[in-house]
Amino acid sequence: MAQAAKNKSAMSAEHKEALALGREQSRAVRRYLEALERHRPRRGRKRTPDSIRRQLGAIEQKLADADPLERLNLLQDRENLQSELASMEEGVDLTALEEEFVKAAKPYSERKGISYSVWREIGVDPSVLRRAGIGRGSRD
């Protein structure tokens, strides 16, 4: 058992650096894709902070006369709307995330074997892929 521990070689500095770079690229890709998902246009009429505030006001009025089950649902609706409003007001700097993605996407894509069409299917804009150096011919 002690002999096996002695034979185990330590990772080289280059290997550790490569692992750290891979983790950094993965984080950049993940953050950008999550931001795209959260800010993807939804079908139907777009909600505004004012329309959400109006809905919150309507919920507050209904709460006074609601039976316990209806109150439960109204309270959950209120919490959901407050979260949505907070995320709208908070905003997200997609440009910074996009720049990180552009730097990381090509080596990440090559290492993981991800094609242009898959990037497009998940929602990455063609102009962003072009800036990242990922073209239509990539693994298609």
Description:
This protein is mostly helical. The protein folds into 2 domains: 13-39 and 93-140; 44-91. It has 7 helices and no strands. It has helices spanning 2-7, 13-38, 49-63, 68-90, 94-112, 116-122, 126-132. The termini are far apart.
State the gist of this model.
With 140 residues, this protein is an all-alpha fold.
> Percent of residues in helical segments?
over 70%
Unreliable stretches (pLDDT < 50, length at least 5) are: none
The biggest beta sheet is recorded as:
none
Report the span from N to C terminus. Answer: 48 Å
Gyration radius, in Å = 24 Å
Overall number of structural domains? 2
- The overall pLDDT, averaged over residues, is 87
Count of discrete alpha- or pi-helical segments spanning 4 or more residues: 7
The secondary-structure element order is HHHHHHH
Strand % is: under 5%
Query: Which structural class best describes the helix and strand composition?
Result: mainly alpha
Number of strands: 0
Name the overall outline: elongated
